[in-house]
Amino acid sequence: MQEKEKSITLGDIFHVLWKNIILLAVITGCVFVIGAIYTFAIAKPTYKSNAAITVAIDYVSESTHQTTYDYTNSIRAVVTVADTIKNNSIIDPVVERYNEDLKDGNNTLVLPSYKLKYPLDESKWQTVSSTGLKEMTSKSLSEMVSVSYTTNSMMVTITVAAKNPIVSEYFADAIQTKCIEEATKAKEDGTKGVFFFADGNMVASSEAKEGEYASPNKKLYIIIAFLIGLVLGVIVIFVKEFMSNKFKTKAEIEASFDEKIVGVFPDRRLKKEQKDNKDVFLVDASIRSFEPYNKLLSNIKYSNLENPYKVIEFTSTLPDELKSTTAANLAFCMANNKNKVIIVDLDIRKAVLHKTFKVSKEAGIVDYIAGDITKEELIKHTESGVDIITVGKDVINPVAVLETSKIKELIEELRNEYDYVIIDTPPCLACSDAQIVAQYADGIIFSLALNQAKKKDILDCLNALKGVDASIIGISITKAESNKHDSYYYYYGNNEDK
């Protein structure tokens, strides 16, 4: 037997997202909050200051001897200037001057102190200062500077991005000033200078101003944080749901196996009692409580009309999949429907049903096999209307007990005396007891708790049972989520006389 391949539909995706809507909201909210904290409290703002220079190459007319601008060569010179600005010949002197200004001002930068050396327009000097600054390296400044120009334009724009608006203005203005100084010096000396032209003019097209806020884009960051949270939440949910090695829904089980789903049972125990309480309990004797067990009983009845199931075995993959709870309450429901029913506890390794039906564990099946008690002493009657055979005394080798012919003979006798014989056996992944008992039963109800056993282990158990020619009546899903049908049964059960 192999697990059937299944496809994921759009409906499955929406169902999974809606089922995990709280998880999605939590993940999205957490990432959004983290993004907001980073944007407004952690991320340091960046400020940008721009300064522009215009480059013009002189042209002397041979006929008139008048000096004009050579537009073509000026455009070419713009490219050269743009490529040269970030070279050490420009950057190094600017950094050196900056570090000197910091030392002179005790790590306080007053703008524009460098204009004392390269005066342009003293009326625009600023008195604003910035403290707590550190010395700069040429490499660091080069990374802060970007140079741009427009095709067929004689203007070069210098942009400096810094964490301090004063620093960004300082360097934009200093680089602009240094470029103009180098161009002026080359023209006066008749040399090509750092820009490789001797007949060029360079003027300030626009003065640097205090750096304006550039980044982070707070609105954009917040939107991105929200989207990242949303996408991350969806990914987590998809991995949790579709990549899980456990069954999470009834639909997954139906899509994976050929066996019928004969019952679906919410885990009411975990809502009424502490989660660490593993005792098997009986439901209240009410229409609402019996309804899922009546459905299970009907499915058992109509599964094989020609050869009705009378001896029914219950097993599961792992402990605590509520197989014993389902078996006990099915027997209780059968008795309430006026059926003569007996439940046999063959989970010799971990007997619990004697507690459920409030009888003594002693004088049980082990004692009967040993010949210590009679059949009449073996069968105990309970207030629930269900007869029970308990395990009895402890035994070292349960398999030896289960394989005796006396067990088979007893079950055949019970088949003739009762309408139904319910047998509780251990989980089949733990031992081979369930496979041994399967030869005495008409069919098996396989309990499968959602989000518990691994898919591979479940498949191995079903294959093991089929390997001994066991007839699997169907799968009983336990620990399922409560749904709208529960509310309907509550309303119907409390208004049955209306």
Automatic annotation (TrEMBL):
Residue ranges occupied by any Polysaccharide chain length determinant N-terminal domain in the UniProt entry: 7-95
Family matches, as Pfam families: AAA_31 (PF13614), Wzz (PF02706)
GO molecular function, one term: ATP binding
Keywords (A to Z) from UniProt: ATP-binding, Cell inner membrane, Cell membrane, Kinase, Membrane, Nucleotide-binding, Transferase, Transmembrane, Transmembrane helix, Tyrosine-protein kinase
EC number annotated for this UniProt entry: 2.7.10.2
Main location group: membrane
Top EC class of this enzyme: transferase
Protein name: non-specific protein-tyrosine kinase
Compartments in which it is found: Cell inner membrane
Domain AAA: 323-457
Catalysis: reaction(s): L-tyrosyl-[protein] + ATP = O-phospho-L-tyrosyl-[protein] + ADP + H(+)
Top-level lineage group: Bacteria
PANTHER family xrefs: FERRIC ENTEROBACTIN TRANSPORT PROTEIN FEPE (PTHR32309:SF13), TYROSINE-PROTEIN KINASE (PTHR32309)
Membrane topology summary: Multi-pass membrane protein
GO cellular component: plasma membrane
TM helices/strands, residue ranges: 21-41, 220-239
